[in-house]
Write a structure and sequence with these properties.
The chain is an alpha/beta fold and 613 residues long. Helix content is 45%, strand content 13%. The chain contains 20 helices and 14 strands. A 6-stranded mixed sheet has the order 1-2-4-3-5-6, sandwiched between helices. Strands 9-8-7-12-10-11 form a 6-stranded mixed sheet. Strands 13-14 form a two-stranded antiparallel ribbon. The longest helix is centred in the last third of the chain and has 20 residues. About 11% of the residues have low confidence. The structure holds adenosine-5'-diphosphate and magnesium ion (MG).
């Protein structure tokens, strides 16, 4: 499919440029990251920052507005924003009363937003978050925490925006928002696939005459594939599932959203609503409000979702407050108004100045999100002191076995690995498309291109750890998605805070990878058998520890073999983390994308070491 774009890697940036330019009455773009900021927001309040992957427009940037979010942090297509983008976007709108983050519950978003919150907290900025998890098809009720967010974002952001604008404290706003989240349930159906700009194939394939029931917003597999059904049959089935899951009973009141996923017409959405309304009316459930629109889309995906938002008096109060953005304007139902009404007293110029000073500060800080002090205190750096002077001796390493790499070798190795990953983009995309959302190849290749840029531009250093740190930061601060944080940590976490060394011994490298493994597990929580990158990394690290005395070539050969076997083993597992977890036993038989990348990284290192021996 051909898309009306200039270059795939520029889609997000150019889209934001156009969006902000068209609606400049409302917005200003953050000067250095992909953040959309509201020009005129109420002063002296907790601010609401939303965000997530791009490609779902008008979600999230279209929900920045008065009575809505103060800013949106925009990631790459279908990939969460990186922590730096989230942190800078929040700092540009923060007003001293804290930041409430609302985003969909996805591994990538959770990891990146969590890290951004740590950065902000280190600078004394208070934060809270509410993860939207409305998709009833994404995990059973007893695994509610594993559910992902889809169009329910609309209601949760609406309530959160009103709560913040009403002047509630951060904690109170978070409480009301959580309540809204816990009263929102959705289910979706896909009738036609979506294709990401730059991807060669659609995210999934759907044979003629079939539909995917419970499909995720990124093309994650649903709960079942079924023969085509007409609107009434589908609407009833979806309604029944939500109602049962939500425990909605006669006498309850709900707001209903029928949300198009991209290419579904308003006519179709209306036909679906007609049936849902009929069922609600028949069963004594009152409709407080209804909406038909394509707010939360997945490119040109065909299909729709139904969301029920159960309201009580408190939620109605916030729901009724007026809000306005180019894509979501509500004048309220007349009962409530914003307390003190939006003063619009913060001029565009003042807002621009605020943004400018953030940009300047960040440039002078070496384009990093936090102060050096903060950096050292971050979670990755919190390794026991003893690790800093870990065994770097040459141990039993014999001559002629390439026991050390100098800084030039390390740089070359990282560049070589980057090229190998870039060359594997299509392969990784294919693997992630089977049980994920198909963006892993794009994300890894993009991150590795950034590694190349950063290392190539870097001045000579006499410290090998600085090279790993630079490579890790290049990934962490550019990729987004689950893999930005995790693969960034692979290089960064084990190197950060270490004493400068101009050579890397095999033992030292094994120890470094061990520290990175620990950091990745601490952040992501995954263990071997959970169908993640850890399945390849942990055996590789153990193999390195066992063979490091034999020098780099032998050690990396063992690491690659172990990572390859670990990757193969992922086919047997159900996923406990990441997008594939919703599939449960349906993920069995498929290889994990992140584990595959780990294997390819070690394969690249092994090839490099073999070349220079
Ligand atoms: P996203 O899931 O945001 O689309 P990617 O597709 O780039 O990100 O990366 C997906 C990979 O991330 C998975 O294949 C898995 O290996 C890894 N992953 C996801 N969550 C975790 C976690 N909690 N711990 C370790 N690895 C994880
Ligand atoms: Mg993915």
């Amino acid at each position: 499919m051909r898309k009306i774009i200039n270059a795939p890697e520029k889609v997000v940036e150019e889209m934001i440029e156009g969006y902000v330019c068209a609606f400049r009455r409302y917005y200003v773009k953050h000067p250095s990251v992909n953040g959309v900021l509201l020009r005129q927001s109420r002063r002296d309040k907790a601010v609401l920052v939303v965000g997530g992957g791009s490609g779902h427009e008008p979600m999230f940037s279209g929900f920045v507005g008065k009575g809505l979010a103060d800013a949106a942090a925009c990631g790459n297509l279908f990939a969460s924003p990186d922590p730096y983008t989230v942190c800078q976007t929040a700092k540009a709108v923060e007003q001293g009363r804290g930041v409430l983050f609302v985003y969909g519950c996805y591994a990538g978003d959770n990891l990146n937003f969590d890290m951004a919150e740590e950065f902000l907290n280190q600078e004394g900025i208070r934060t809270a978050h509410v993860r939207v998890q409305d998709d009833v098809a994404s995990a059973p009720k007893d695994r509610y925490e594993d559910r992902r967010g889809i169009a329910g974002d609309v209601f949760v952001i609406k309530i959160a925006g009103a709560a913040c604008d009403a002047g509630l404290s951060l904690d109170e706003a978070a409480r009301v928002t959580e309540k809204a989240r816990d009263h929102t349930w959705s289910i979706g159906i896909a009738t036609a696939p979506a294709q990401l700009p730059g991807a060669e194939k659609p995210v999934f394939e759907l044979p003629e005459g079939e539909m995917e029931y419970g499909m995720g917003l990124h093309g994650e597999k649903g709960v079942l594939r079924t023969a085509w059904q007409d609107a009434d049959a589908l609407a009833e089935r979806m309604y029944r599932q939500i109602r049962e899951d939500a425990g909605i009973v006669k006498g309850d009141e709900v707001c209903v959203l029928v949300n198009g996923l991209g290419s579904t017409t308003l006519a179709e959405l209306a036909i679906v609503y007609r049936k849902v309304y009929g069922l609600l009316a028949k069963e004594g459930v009152k409709v407080y409000d209804a909406d038909l629109n394509s707010y939360c889309t997945s490119q040109e995906m065909g299909g729709f979702s139904i969301t029920l938002f159960k309201v009580d008096e408190e939620l109605k109060k916030y729901y009724d407050m007026p809000c306005e953005s180019p894509f979501y304007t509500r004048l309220g139902r007349g009962s409530a108004t914003l307390k003190g009404e939006s003063p619009q007293d913060e001029t565009a110029a003042a807002r621009r100045n605020q943004v400018k000073s953030v940009g300047a500060e960040q440039d002078s800080a070496g384009a990093r999100c936090r102060s050096e002090k903060g950096r050292r205190q971050s979670v990755e750096a919190a390794y026991e002191e003893k690790e800093k002077t870990a065994d770097h001796g040459e141990g039993g390493c014999r001559e002629g076995k390439l026991c050390e790499l100098n800084t030039a070798d390390v740089k070359e190795m990282l560049l070589y690995v980057a090229d190998q990953i870039i060359a594997s983009q299509a392969y990784l995309t294919e693997i992630d498309s089977a049980i994920g959302d198909g963006d892993h190849g794009i994300g890894m290749a993009g991150g590795m291109r950034n590694v190349k840029r950063k290392l190539t531009a870097m001045e000579e250093t006499g410290n090998i750890y600085k090279l790993f740190e630079a490579a890790g930061e290049a990934m962490l601060l550019s990729m987004g998605g689950a893999s930005g944080v995790l693969f960034g940590s692979l290089y960064l976490a084990g190197a950060r805070g270490m004493e400068a060394r101009d050579t890397l011994t095999a033992q030292g490298f094994a120890a470094m990878m061990g520290r990175s493994l620990k950091a990745i597990q601490k952040r992501g929580g995954a263990r071997v058998g959970d169908k993640t990158m850890v399945d390849a990394l942990e055996p590789a690290v153990r193999a390195m520890e066992a063979t490091c005395a034999k020098g780099f070539p032998e050690m990396l050969k063992a690491a690659e073999a172990a990572a390859k076997q670990g990757t193969e083993d992922t086919k047997r597992y159900q996923a406990k983390y990441g997008r594939a977890k919703s599939l449960m036993e349906r993920a069995v038989g498929y290889q994990d994308a992140g584990a595959t990348s780990v294997w390819l990284i070690f394969r690249g290192m092994r090839e490099f070491a073999a070349c220079i021996t």
